[in-house]
Amino acid sequence: MVFSHIRYYTREVPFEYTCEHCGKDSGTQIAEFRIGARSDWKWLTLSDKADQKLTLDAQKSMSKFMTKYRTDVEEKHKFSDFFPNQCPHCGKKQVWGKGNIKRNQFLFALACAGAGVIASFFVNRSGSFNLALLMFFAFLGAFAGMIIGPILFHLKQSAFPPRPKHIPVVHWPNDIEI
Questions:
Q1: What is the separation of C-alpha 166 from the centre of its chain, rounded to a whole number of angstroms?
Q2: Is the overall model pTM greater than 0.90, yes or no?
Q3: What does the pLDDT read at residue 156?
Q4: Which of 15, 132, 142, 162 has the smallest number of CB atoms closer than 10 Å to its CB?
Q5: Based on the structure, what is the number of domains in the chain?
Q6: Which of 93, 80, 33, 31 is nearest to 59 (CA)?
Q7: Range of the domain at 131
Q8: pLDDT for res 137
Q9: Are 42 and 3 in contact (CB under 8 A)?
């Protein structure tokens, strides 16, 4: 029998920004990064040496990730869910926060699937419940939502890219280099 062991490594990176809506300073906010390293071991508990190696692997993974992520933030201004983007004063989300893109695409696909289900009732005029037709239209709607949603989002982003007024100032730890 093989047992899986995971060691997590967490880094906190302070940052601050000026709200794009109310103009107030956010104060120091914390972005929390958490990376795990996994190892399969034949014993229920790890030896001290194996535990140290797994912890060191998690630290190395975090270092690689943070270096790449810092480059994305500083050169491309790409922020993700690690950075909370809701103003503590007015509660509105900032333009630089990109955390809702995937959720919106999923909701669009789900709405298209629902529209497909409703359309199947209008097509099936006999009044009987036809499961195959219902599933076909639901699948067709979801597929259209997954294909058309990202295309529409990309067209909207290229035509009207969001222009953040205030980019957050990130206080990176000294050991993270570009």
A1: 21
A2: no
A3: 65
A4: 132
A5: 2
A6: 33
A7: 101-159
A8: 72
A9: yes
